[in-house]
Amino acid sequence: MMKTILLIITFVVSLSFLTGCNLDHLVIQQTDELTALRSISEPSGVELKSAIAGVASFSETISIQLLHKNEFPIGTMTLANSGSQLVIEISGNDQYVIEKLQLWVGNKMSEIPVNKIGQPQPGKFPYKSSGLTEYTYLIDQTELGENYDFRKGEPLFILAHAEAVNIQSGEKKSAWSAGEPLNSRNDVTYTEYYPSIPTGGGGCFPHLAFCGQEVSGEFYFDNTQEESQDIIADNEEIIGTVWYNSDQIFFSFSQDWSLYGESPVESIYGCNSPGGTLTELPLTTVHQVNGNLYIDVPYFLYYVINLNVQYCTTTN
């Protein structure tokens, strides 16, 4: 069984999960916990082009913001998985460079290193790196939990703690990967990741999706407009359209995309202006009539709608 393999890569050109760019230079740095570098097991006929392409075909990527005090973005964490490995890429943005990174990932939150009052201890996280422009971790599923298997579809919990510096001012900020609050004592948040379930000849990959136009980091469906508006997945792809008619919101999806799970409408809020007070609306059943998907809603000028969707493909 392969032990944890940590690849920390300084990129000369930007690496994208969705392209297979050749790397002119590949620098591998050991962590404190890694005393000897172990080689990557490559499947026959696969050329090592990047940290992702070196092992297997990976799923569609999911991007998560790194937020200072749960509101100010300083970078991005991108997640994907193959049938046996998880890949995590983390980098700053056009304003911040990440100087230090501490990462924990597993399938049991009870195993997160915390102190006596339940505060996380990033210094005890297993993956610690510093001094790079981009950080890439390739982790075997055997290291994610006892008997953990991607095929079971069990969630993973990720805490990514970054210490970043403003490129222009030199101001330093700490940040955590966006998600749910770890507890009520501070701004620590954790990210919940549902891996794709690999199947021969393709598979279905869960995503989050948003409706309308982005305003100050939030997507609003503008009910004052008569025309349909976009549905945007978390990989920034436009995957369908949404419109309002007579106290009903309708959804239409592009080929290969659809609603996903028992609660496809993850959350919905109404408000009278972007940035205004949000009124949480009760989750409702998605109806289908004559091929149209819709939900019943009370009238508001604007809605904030978060959807659980999936992309399905028959090719690897």
Key features of this structure:
12-stranded antiparallel sheet; 10-stranded antiparallel sheet; disordered N terminus; 316 residues; mainly beta; 22 strands; single chain
**How big is the Rg?**
21 Å
**Total domain count:** 2
Share in β-strands? 35-45%
The number of distinct β-strands equals 22
How are helices and strands ordered from N to C? EEEEEEEEEEEEEEEEEEEEEE
Q: What structural class do you assign from the helix and strand content? A: mainly beta
How would you describe the shape? globular
> What composes the largest sheet?
12 strands, antiparallel
Ends: how far apart? 25 Å
- Helical element count? 0
Query: Which whole number gives the mean pLDDT?
Result: 79
What share of the residues lie within helices?
under 10%
Can you tell me the residue ranges where pLDDT is under 50 for at least 5 consecutive residues? 1-56
SSE arrangement:
Layout: E1 62-68, E2 72-81, E3 85-92, E4 96-106, E5 127-130, E6 134-140, E7 156-166, E8 172-177, E9 180-181, E10 189-193, E11 203-211, E12 213-215, E13 218-222, E14 229-233, E15 238-244, E16 248-253, E17 257-259, E18 265-271, E19 279-280, E20 287-289, E21 292-296, E22 302-313
